[in-house]
Amino acid sequence: MDQVFIGVDTHKANHIAVALNAQGVRLGTMTIAANENGYRRLDAWETGLGHVTAFGIEGTGSYGAGLSRDLQARGHTVLDVMRPNRQLRYLHGKSDCLDAEGAARSVLNGQATAIAKSQGGTSEMIRHLKVARDSAVKAKSQAMITLKTLIINAPAELRSSLEHIRGPISLVRHLAALRPGEIISPMASTKSALRSIARRWLALHEEIQQHDGELERMVAEKAPDLMRAYGISTLTIAEMLILVGDNPERIRSQAALAKLCGVCPIPASSGKTVRIRLNRGGNRQANAALYRVAIVRMRDHTETMRYAARRIAEGKTRREIVRCIKRYIVREIFTALCRPKLPTLPA
Fold this sequence. Notes:
Layout: E1 3-10, E2 14-21, E3 26-33, H1 36-47, E4 51-58, H2 65-73, E5 78-81, H3 86-92, H4 96-108, H5 122-152, H6 156-162, H7 168-176, H8 186-222, H9 224-227, H10 234-244, H11 254-261, E6 266-267, E7 276-277, H12 284-300, H13 302-313, H14 318-337
Helix pairs in contact: 5-8, 5-10, 7-8, 8-10, 10-12, 11-14, 12-13, 12-14
């Protein structure tokens, strides 16, 4: 009877916690700072309430990441809570205390069941490097677009001198070696701008190569079996490791992983109409990675090509076949990442 359920509404500067007992009665409310001192205050507060069964935190991957890691390190069960229902907000209003109480009630009534990612191991390190790499790739693409725009608008003499250069890397290196001199003419200013952006592109290119090397090393250590799978690249495995997290035991079945990736079918039947529609939820980056693997296997992998031919003969469309292949790939990834490895018996 002394079970306590705590919901937390997280923000950048502070968090609001609400505690409920097993009957759903509010036991108290507390506001803490989003730092280590605030986490210690929350620990002292919840200890005096009774046995805390679970914490329900909204935003364990953003503002609540630090609190989630701290609670898991102290042995608490932390559940990831979805944002409040907008219809309930319209009916009952919106406040931080109401959001925190809603998070606690979703844990109490069993609606929140997703265990938060631990965010303290190799998968989290891979996520950090992947974020830095994606940012560098985006900046590199923007730099190349800007270079081409400047070249088109450059003085005719400079533009003519660059037309014979083939290949983006050769062009960028040539531009990085320009000597504009004193900027007293449009020619000099154009050369200065081209050189600056070209050197930025080269620096980003080197940064991306460094990130790729680190990601390949970490992924090979974390998932060596998937590295040998056909059509699955380092970045695809990195995306799946980020999705699964450092506590893969929280994903209990292949269907759960498929739902996280947005691969599971969604029933959309009504009356006499029975149909299944495309799932537009889940992690879209992971879904896109699965799509790329499916396309590669449909083009080059012998077994997948035979499967696709058989399904076409059955009357399936290409889109439906891709969905089926993505589901098979999820099964393969689940076996490699989420299924516990059995200990090897000595010979």
